[in-house]
Design goal:
The chain is of the alpha+beta class. 30% of the residues lie in helices and 24% in strands. The chain has ten helices and 15 strands. The strands form four sheets. Strands 6, 7, 8, 9 and 10 form a five-stranded antiparallel sheet that branches. Strand 4 and strand 5 form a beta hairpin. Helix 9 packs antiparallel against helix 10.
Length: 398
C-alpha cells in the first residue's frame, strides 16, 4: 500500500556477458531451484558475468500503470538505457516514496546468483581454491521427492524475519543454507541478504567451523521425518491424504542450529488446498512436533530436559535424569510466557511487538540453557555446534 494505492513491486536487472575479468554463469541454471515454475518465471538461459538490481518497478493493481525507479545510482548500464530513451524512462532514486522504499526486499534472483558464486569464491587461499576441496554446494531440496518434485534439485532460499549474529534487531532477510560439496549431511554456512536501516543492500555469510557436526538440511529433514513418533503420524496421514512439506528453515538459536519445517496435508481430489497439520523441529539430537509452533517448542524442550534424543537414533548417547530445581522451573515458566507473548504479537500484527517478543524467546531460551548447565544436566546443545545467537521466527505478522 503506497499513497493509498495497492501496487506490485518487481525487481529489474541489468546484465552483460563481456565484463572484463569476471566469471560467467548460466543465468537460468544459477537461478533455478525446486520452486522454479511454481508461480515464478525462470530467467533466460544465457551466460552473464555482470548483474545488477538497478531498477525497482511498480505496477498499479487498479490501473496497471508501470513506474520504473532507478535503485542503483552507480550502474552505468542503466544510465545509458535511460539516456537512449530520452532520459525520462526511469525516475531517479530520489523520487522513490518512503512508503514504497519500506517495502523493498532483497532481490531473489540476484541472491541466487551470488549464492552460486559463493560456493567457490568464499575460498581465499589459492591452493585450496585450485584443489576445490573446500568448495560448497547449494543443498538439494530435502522434501523434493516426497512432494512430487524431481530429486537432486536445489533448495530454494526463503524470506524470514529473524535476528542473526551481528544484527542488532530482527531483520526481514533472504536466507539460504550451504553444505560442503558432495557432502550434504553437515552444514557449512548460512548466507543472508537484506537491506539495512539506510536501505543499503547487505550480503552476509555465517560460516560454520569446518570441524563441526551441525546437521545439514537433508539430514535434519530425515531426522525429523524418521523419528518413530513422527513417522507413525505421517503413515496414518498418507492413508487418506497427500503429505506436503513447507520451507525447511535453518535458524541459529542460542548455541546451536534450530531447524523448523511445516507439514501440510492435502485431500485427494480437485480444488483442494493444503492445511497445516504439524510443525516439525530439530535442535541437535532432539526432535519436537506438534500442531502449533508453540507446542512443538515445548515438546522439543521437554525432550532436551529429559535427555531423550530422537528415537530414530539407533545408538543414543548415555543420558542422565537429574531432578528439576527452582532455577530450571523458573526458566521454563519464563520461556512458556515468552512463547505466549510471541503468539499474541503475531496475531496483533504489531511488528515492533513481534520483534520484541522474538528477542524475549531467545533470551528465555538462553536462561533455560544456563539453568540446565548450572544444574549439571547440560544445555541440550550438540557438541561442535557454532556459537551464534538469534531468534527464530514463524510467519511474520500480517
Amino acid at each position: 500500500m503506497v499513497n493509498g494505492k495497492i501496487v506490485w513491486v518487481l525487481d529489474g536487472y541489468t546484465t552483460a556477458s563481456t565484463y572484463p575479468y569476471s566469471d560467467q554463469v548460466d543465468l537460468r541454471q544459477a537461478t533455478s531451484d525446486s520452486l522454479t515454475n511454481e508461480g515464478t518465471v525462470p530467467q533466460a538461459q544465457e551466460n552473464v558475468n555482470y548483474l545488477r538490481n538497478s531498477v525497482k518497478a511498480t505496477v498499479d493493481a487498479y490501473t496497471g500503470e508501470v513506474t520504473l525507479y532507478q535503485f542503483d545510482d552507480n550502474d552505468p548500464v542503466i544510465k545509458v538505457w535511460n539516456k537512449a530513451f530520452g532520459g525520462n524512462l526511469i525516475k531517479p532514486s530520489s523520487a522513490i516514496p518512503a512508503e514504497l522504499r519500506a517495502h523493498f526486499r532483497y532481490p531473489e534472483d540476484q541472491f541466487k546468483v551470488q549464492r552460486d558464486l559463493l560456493t567457490r569464491f568464499h575460498v581465499t587461499d589459492p591452493k585450496q581454491f585450485y584443489s576445490g576441496q573446500d568448495f560448497w554446494q547449494v543443498p538439494d531440496d530435502p522434501a523434493g521427492p516426497s512432494t512430487g518434485r524431481a530429486s537432486g534439485v536445489k533448495q530454494a532460499p526463503y524470506y524470514l524475519l529473524a535476528q542473526f549474529p551481528g544484527q542488532e534487531t530482527s531483520t526481514f532477510q533472504l536466507t539460504a543454507a550451504m553444505t560442503p560439496r558432495n557432502r550434504q549431511n553437515v552444514l557449512s554456512a548460512l548466507i543472508s541478504g537484506y537491506y539495512d536501516a539506510d536501505g543499503k543492500p547487505q550480503l552476509r555469510v555465517l560460516q560454520i567451523p569446518s570441524d563441526s557436526n551441525v546437521a545439514g538440511p537433508t539430514q535434519a529433514h530425515q531426522k525429523m521425518t524418521n523419528d518413530n513418533e513422527v513417522r507413525s503420524q505421517i503413515t496414518l496421514l498418507q492413508g487418506s491424504a497427500d503429505v506436503e512439506y513447507g520451507n525447511l528453515l535453518s535458524l541459529p538459536v542460542a548455541d546451536g542450529m534450530l531447524y523448523v519445517e511445516p507439514l501440510y496435508v492435502k485431500n485427494r481430489g480437485d480444488n483442494t488446498f493444503p492445511q497445516l497439520k504439524f510443525v516439525l523441529l530439530s535442535f541437535g539430537q532432539y526432535v519436537g512436533f506438534d500442531a502449533t509452533l508453540d507446542g512443538a517448542i515445548k515438546k522439543l524442550l521437554a525432550a532436551a530436559q529429559a535427555g531423550q534424543p530422537s528415537t530414530e537414533n539407533p545408538n543414543p548417547p548415555p543420558t542422565t535424569n537429574e531432578p528439576n530445581n527452582a532455577a530450571v522451573d523458573a526458566a521454563l515458566a519464563r520461556l512458556d510466557q515468552a512463547i505466549k507473548n510471541l503468539a499474541a504479537a503475531q496475531a496483533s500484527g504489531d511488528f515492533a511487538a513481534y520483534g520484541k517478543a522474538l528477542q524475549e524467546v531467545n533470551d528465555a531460551l538462553k536462561a533455560y540453557q544456563e539453568a540446565r548447565a548450572a544444574q549439571g544436566g547440560g544445555t541440550g546443545t550438540p557438541s561442535g555446534s557454532p556459537s551464534p545467537s538469534g531468534a527464530p521466527s514463524s510467519s511474520p505478522p500480517g
